[in-house]
Design goal:
Length: 320
């Protein structure tokens, strides 16, 4: 392969810039050119292309967001949109494409492979960490650290006013961010969609904590489990503890990537590119333990990532 394309697609995640940098520099070091398309699949369809040289990806390793910009393309979800994208890739001389994004973006990559036999490689980039085939997706570590910093700040005011705080974190349908941030933030209760919970039980837990002398508590709730405001209303009404809620929202997507996310992005971006240039296709680069792995996209997208049961037990035993 002499030329490949690269996009960042779906929700941005800290570390996506480092991943693009890795794709470009790995390709250049093997004598291949890289074309960057802005706005994900939407930018391929509208041919928003630019050649990416080494200099273009200099000075971005520490930057949050994605300098290529991103989008969730509705047009690409149609067969006509995908055909247009395929034709634009060919017009640009791209013999393969690296897609950096979450499960929706990787599903799009698999469609290009299945419908046009077009070589694609995936790099998992999502704060949600809900992608199978890798222990970590790019951006998760940074988002968790951002959430933990926020929880720490909220704990200060919760302590001072002797209040209960319900803090809502992102994660779409999953609770990976909530569980990790809740554990690290020392939350009294962590509510995630994967595990059934009852708010009366949470109230009982808060009451028993109060009886033991705890005067403030933190409840972390995943956005996919419930609305923080509803939980707050229920707790306040049923326990009479003064309660407030905070929705962390998109602040979890921004900020400079952690060292962990930068190195992860470099490793996964370079691996996906090297494998694409070596003739592999339809895979996603990932990490298993500390080892690099590459799994078929068909496997990755048909497998549900599971919550770690050991962490669940830990969260229960830590809230006593
Ligand atoms: O997938 C990343 C994510 O931040 C989710 O955690 C969240 O549910 C969603 O994207 C928000 O999407 P949008 O930026 O389109 O509101």
């Amino acid at each position: 392969m002499k030329k490949i394309g690269v996009i960042t697609s779906g929700g941005d995640a800290p570390g996506m810039n480092a991943a693009v940098r890795a794709v470009v520099r790995a390709a250049l070091s093997r004598g291949a050119e890289v074309v960057g398309f802005s706005h994900g699949y939407e930018g391929i369809i509208h041919n928003e292309s630019q050649p990416l040289e080494s200099a273009q990806v200099g000075g971005i390793i520490d930057r949050g967001g994605t300098f290529l910009r991103t989008a969730r393309s509705r047009t690409f979800m149609t067969p006509e949109g995908r055909e247009q994208a395929y034709n634009v890739l060919l017009q640009n001389g791209c013999e393969g494409l690296v897609v950096i994004g979450g499960d929706g973006s990787l599903t799009g990559a698999l469609k290009l492979l299945e419908e046009f036999d077009y070589p694609v490689m995936g790099v998992p980039g999502s704060i949600d960490n809900d992608i199978s085939g890798t222990d970590f997706s790019i951006g998760f570590d940074t988002a968790v650290n951002t959430a933990v910093q926020a929880i720490d700040r909220v704990r200060d005011t919760a302590y001072s006013h002797e209040r209960v705080f319900v803090i809502e974190v992102m994660g779409r349908r999953n609770g990976f961010i909530a569980l990790e941030a809740g554990l690290a933030g020392g939350a009294e209760a962590i509510l995630i969609p994967e595990v059934p919970f009852s708010i009366p039980d949470v109230c009982a837990l808060l009451r028993s904590a109060a009886e033991r002398g705890k005067r403030s508590s933190i409840v972390v709730v995943a956005e996919g489990a419930a609305r923080a405001e509803d939980i707050k209303d229920f707790i306040e009404h049923n326990t009479k503890f003064e309660t407030r809620h905070v929705v962390l929202g998109h602040m979890q997507r921004g900020g400079s990537p952690s060292a962990f996310d930068r190195v992860l992005a470099l490793r996964l971006g370079a691996m996906a590119t090297n494998r694409l240039l070596s003739g592999y296709r339809g895979e996603m680069a990932g990490v298993d333990g500390n080892k690099l792995v590459s799994h078929p996209l068909s496997y990755v997208l048909s497998t549900e990532r599971q919550i770690d049961p050991e962490r669940l037990i830990l969260s229960d035993s830590m809230s006593i």
